[in-house]
Amino acid sequence: MKPALTIDILLEEAVKFSEIESIYDEPLLFGTTDGKAVGTYLEQKFRNYLALSYEYVLGNSASGIDFPGLNVDMKVTSIRQPQSSCPFKSARQKIFGLGYGLLIFVYEKTDDHQNRTGRLDMQHTIFVDKSRTADYQMTRGILSILANDGNADDLVAFIMDRNLPVDEIEAHNIAEEILINPPEQGYLTISNALQWRLQYSRILQKAGDVSGITKVR
Fold this sequence. Notes:
Layout: H1 7-21, E1 25-26, H2 35-51, E2 72-78, E3 83-86, H3 93-96, E4 101-112, E5 117-128, H4 136-147, H5 152-161, H6 168-180, E6 189-191, E7 196-199, H7 201-206, E8 213-215
Parallel strand pairs: 2-4
Antiparallel strand pairs: 1-5, 3-7, 4-5, 5-8, 6-7
Helix pairs in contact: 4-5, 5-6
């Protein structure tokens, strides 16, 4: 029986994997500029790497995340534009967080034209606890309103001004929930779209300095 995968083990293995991958020359990646293709390659490779030694629940379209048993999703992004997309479930995710943690691999890709191989130098490997996955400006504004004795009307006005994809009734429901259960300060930048667009620049800046954002490597 293989041991079960835990978050601690996941992060330990992410470090080892990043170190191995950073010196590996891959012919399949030569000339590739498609970030989605690179991400798919690395995600599948890491899942296969883990499966050699550990038991874990594989993600599927229903769960929507890579490690549903750990409530963690994996993201792969280029250092040149550290961002990715994720499924939109509810406008509340921008305030209360995505609902799961993120393991983020940030790479810089180089090509060896002589040997016709590509290499992914892993610049950062970062774990973001689910409590820190809300939008930075949205949560900062809400917490500022609460700190200044703001009420539900103030919160509704702020939510509507920020163009959160909700109607006024839902904005009132969210405002009442905020008063009972204030959100944690988030550190993602989440852009409104059919899918959320997650941007990680602030995560890279704050990793290791803020609780819930761990610089794994």
